[in-house]
Amino acid sequence: MKVGVIGCGYWGPNLVRNFSAMDEVTVVAVCDSREERLDFIRRQYPAIRLFTKESGEILKSPDIDAVVIATPVSTHFPLGMEALANGKHLFIEKPFTATVEQAEGLINLAEQKNLRIMVDHTFIFTGAVQAIRKLVDDGTLGELYYFDSVRVNLGLFQHDVNVIWDLAPHDVSIMDYLLDRQPKAIAATGMAHFDTDIENIASISTYYEGNLLGHIHVNWLAPVKVRKTLLSGSRQMVIYDDTDPSEKVKVYERGVEMIEDKNAIYDILVQYRTGDMLAPRLDSTEALKLASAEFYKAVNENRAPKTDADAGLRVVRILEAANRSIRENSRVIELD
């Protein structure tokens, strides 16, 4: 498979590196509007064709099978539509698109053209998230009660999107993958502390059938970097700390059960169980390496990749609803 990469800022070089490392894939062209970014690629990969602003050279080139888009989200839809229209498979950076309508447009065109779209929800391919998904699938955690995540840091302000669209796609994609069900409603709060309407702190609540609750907090104004997720079940609980160098996932044999006393219907007893903590061994393979390989395999096998366009659409739907909730004074937004 021959690949062209559009966008070579922070994440683009990582994509070039991982696709170039695959025996079955050749990165033949890279495009970026900044000459200094192309100089970086030129020094590392002298055989790659380089273009400044001429993304059409990649989108229309007959010798390119797939296009990798690592540009601002506002450009994902027009670039993606042109790539698909020219018969290219699509590997696209998160978030998938800026609106649900745009995501549906890309999905429809890809289906008409029998082309594959993969959204780069990289965290899904980490050893940590895969280990937690196994605990969910085999029933180790029991009935799920809540998903709670915090992703905060100081700085890294974006000028074109708020903190929800910048940081929350990671956690929303993890939540979507681990819970494997769709929320029925969304509510969000947020605040912009400067002379702008771009929120720099926000919280998203997702409501599911069966009293399952999701909560995501994102913040550009924290004094420290925190990347922590809690997933609680009736049998066991999990903490996933992405900043922990040695024990990213900790499984606690602790649970809470509500027990009704049949002899006194109004009395409800709460039973707590405590036990050991287990830190499972995790696959340390770079997540983006696995994601790149998954894209190639999905195209080659003519199947949907693990983080396909539908997964991207589900994430965008939650982000869009959260934004709408903030604009409407934290009103609960019902989802179809």
Question: What features would you describe in this structure?
Answer:
The chain contains 9 helices and 17 strands. The longest helix is centred in the last third of the chain and has 19 residues, at 309-327. It has 2 domains: 2-115, 3-Layer(aba) Sandwich (Rossmann fold); 124-285 and 317-334, Dihydrodipicolinate Reductase, domain 2, CATH 3.30.360.10. It is an alpha/beta fold. The mean pLDDT is 93. 33% of the residues lie in helices and 29% in strands. The two termini are 38 Å apart. A 9-stranded mixed beta sheet has the order 16-13-12-11-7-10-9-8-17. A 6-stranded parallel beta sheet has the order 3-2-1-4-5-6, with helices on both faces. Strands 14-15 form a two-stranded antiparallel ribbon. The protein has helices at 12-20, 35-44, 55-60, 76-85, 100-113, 127-137, 163-179, 287-300, 309-327, and strands at 2-6, 26-31, 49-51, 66-69, 89-93, 117-120, 144-154, 185-191, 201-207, 213-219, 221-233, 237-241, 249-252, 255-260, 268-273, 277-278, 333-334.
Number of domains: 2
Shape: globular
SS element count, helices:
9
- Going by CATH, the homologous superfamily of the largest domain would be Dihydrodipicolinate Reductase, domain 2
Number of strands: 17
Radius of gyration: 22 Å
Per CATH, the architecture of the largest domain is: 2-Layer Sandwich
Distance between the termini: 38 Å
Strand order of the largest sheet: 16-13-12-11-7-10-9-8-17
The arrangement of helices and strands along the chain is: EHEHEHEHEHEHEHEEEEEEEEEHHE
SSE-based structural type: alpha/beta
Overall average pLDDT = 93
How is the main sheet built? 9 strands, mixed
Helix content percent band: 25-40%
β-strand amount: 25-35%
Classified by CATH, the class of the largest domain is: Alpha Beta
CATH topology of the largest domain: the name is: Dihydrodipicolinate Reductase, domain 2
Unreliable stretches, pLDDT < 50, 5 or more residues? none
